Amino acid sequence: MAKSIVCLQSLTNEQEEAIRKAAPGFTYVHSDAKQPDLDALAEAEIVIGWAKGISDCLLREGTPLRWVQAWSAGVEKLPLDRLEQRGIVLTNASGVHAEPISQVIFGFMLMFVRNLHTAIRNQDRHIWNSDGTETELTGKTAVIVGTGEIGGETAQIAKAFGMRTVGVRRIDDPLPGFDAMYTTSRLKEAVTRGDFVINTLPLTDETRYLFDASVFSAFKEGSYYINIGRGGTTDTEALIEALENGPLRGAGLDVFETEPLPEDHPLWDMKQVIITPHVAGLTDHYSDRLVDIFTENMKSYLVSGAPLSNVVDYRRQY
């Protein structure tokens, strides 16, 4: 029986041809994620993407599935325990998002320091006004919690703006682009240094509600919080309290505990908050970059039976 790759995402003809060329000996099959072809999935050795209702078909004993390429960097919505039990290799889309998300981060920061969020609201009401609090990024400190592809790209750009950079991750070994590094266990100490605290974390058992009331209380007075990681890493009620009663001056939020954000949620009406609907990672280059990751990994898969990059560690959940 021919080996097959089933893709649950819509790709261009050129992208599909790139996959076919990288995978000699494999049949390429496209399946609609909204109405997945379960018969095709049951015969797949490699699956690109994921869809509701396919777990039992894919993960029952005896299927040829060996590798799943997730379409996102975060994999918390996939059945990680079952994938691990079956010995399936899972790779994610880490690296695809670095450019667009870092640009959103700087969009938030520039809006805050130049009061552009206020100017837009004033424009809607035809008001010519400035409160005189405009400043700049030069000399400010960005505390970047999560120093992977997105965090690293953000740090490099921050240096070009003349900012100081502080990283927070599981180990405190130095990394290029960062002036200082803290372990996650020292998060409360790290955030005291930040004019901006930027959360790029995935959602795992360790990061869920990591930003709680005790952490927000340690923030520098007048600082800003930016979350483009996962909403579940943040205690929303504690965030609102920090925005209303200090120390936060504002927040740029792309992700939320509940999505879509309910229409009656208090965050909508907070003038010091900028909200985007979980689109920081979206870009017209997304599929091209994901296909590049997959085809590069296909080279090692054909030689050794396993991809080498973007492999998810099931213990860490990323």
Automatic annotation (TrEMBL):
The keyword Lipid metabolism does not apply. The keyword Mitochondrion does not apply. InterPro entries: D-isomer_2_OHA_DH_cat_dom, D-isomer_DH_NAD-bd, NAD(P)-bd_dom_sf. Keywords: NAD, Oxidoreductase. GO terms for molecular function: NAD binding; oxidoreductase activity, acting on the CH-OH group of donors, NAD or NADP as acceptor. Residues 106-280 form the D-isomer specific 2-hydroxyacid dehydrogenase NAD-binding domain. SUPFAM superfamilies: Formate/glycerate dehydrogenase catalytic domain-like, NAD(P)-binding Rossmann-fold domains. Residues 10-311 form the D-isomer specific 2-hydroxyacid dehydrogenase catalytic domain. Belongs to the D-isomer specific 2-hydroxyacid dehydrogenase family. This is D-2-hydroxyacid dehydrogenase.
